[in-house]
């Protein structure tokens, strides 16, 4: 499992005091506001978060040491990461990054349908793209279809319905 997980991207400057606008890549922009330290780009350089707030589905952040527009501009297009150790997920929750490559099984028959190749994050719900052999399945990530997600065991069991 990856130690650092992508959580957003700095899209622009906000105001004149060194704040930046961050596009969150999480279920909720509020998730990003709880962290005191984020990590920048592939080098995972740590930056301290002085403050963060949600504004129109974006997160406005002030990083320690950024005090003006030129400093904030230097962060534009930076991808932000969190350290997995800094997060306490609720029981049964998982990071999407952890399910890529998991084996997908038919809950009724045990047949292996393929592996999770992609996750489409759509407005209504996520959709798991499962590839196996010559076929590709798109399975909505909702309780009617997902019988069990076992990240530690390396598999997901799905309820197959006619036409899926």
Describe, in plain words, how this protein is organized in 3D.
- The strands form 2 sheets. A 6-stranded antiparallel β-barrel has the order 1-2-5-4-3-6. Strands 10-9-8-7-12-11 form a 6-stranded mixed sheet, with no helix packed on it.
- The longest helix has 5 residues, at 69-73.
- The protein is elongated, with a radius of gyration of 19 Å.
- It has helices at residues 29-32, 69-73; strands at residues 4-14, 19-24, 37-40, 45-55, 58-63, 79-83, 103-106, 112-121, 126-132, 135-140, 146-150, 155-158.
- 21% of the residues are buried.
- It has 164 residues and is mainly β.
List keywords for this structure.
six-stranded mixed β-sheet, elongated, six-stranded antiparallel β-barrel, 12 strands, 48% strand, 2 helices, mainly beta, 164 residues
Taking strands numbered 1, 2, ... along the chain, how are they ordered across the largest sheet?
1-2-5-4-3-6
Average predicted confidence as pLDDT: 92
Helix content: under 10%
| Beta-strand share of residues | over 45%
Please tally the helical runs, counting DSSP H or I stretches of 4 or more residues.
Answer: 2
Taking the alpha carbons of the first and last residues, their distance comes to 30 Å
Radius of gyration: 19 Å
Biggest β-sheet strands, sense, barrel: 6 strands, antiparallel, barrel
Shape: elongated
Order of helices and strands: EEHEEEHEEEEEEE
Number of strands: 12
Low-pLDDT segments, ≥5 res? none
Structural class, from helix and strand content? mainly beta
Question: How would you concisely characterize the structure shown here?
Answer:
By secondary structure, the protein is mainly beta. The chain has two helices and twelve strands; from the N terminus they run E-E-H-E-E-E-H-E-E-E-E-E-E-E. The protein has helices at residues 29-32, 69-73, and strands at residues 4-14, 19-24, 37-40, 45-55, 58-63, 79-83, 103-106, 112-121, 126-132, 135-140, 146-150, 155-158.
């Amino acid at each position: 499992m990856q130690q650092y997980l992508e959580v957003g991207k700095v899209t622009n400057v906000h105001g004149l005091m060194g704040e930046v606008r961050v596009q969150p890549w999480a279920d909720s922009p509020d998730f990003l506001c709880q962290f005191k330290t984020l990590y920048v780009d592939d080098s995972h350089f740590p930056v301290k978060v002085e403050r963060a707030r949600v504004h129109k589905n974006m997160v406005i952040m002030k990083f320690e040491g950024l005090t003006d527009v030129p400093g904030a501009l230097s962060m534009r297009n930076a991808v932000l990461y969190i350290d997995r150790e800094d997060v306490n997920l609720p029981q049964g929750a998982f990071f999407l990054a952890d399910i890529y490559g998991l084996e997908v099984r038919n809950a009724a028959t045990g047949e292996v349908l393929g592996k999770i190749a992609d996750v489409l994050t759509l407005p209504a719900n996520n959709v798991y793209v499962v590839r196996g052999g010559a076929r590709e399945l798109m399975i909505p990530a909702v309780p009617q279809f997902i019988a069990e997600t076992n990240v530690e065991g390396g598999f997901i069991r799905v309820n197959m319905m006619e036409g899926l």
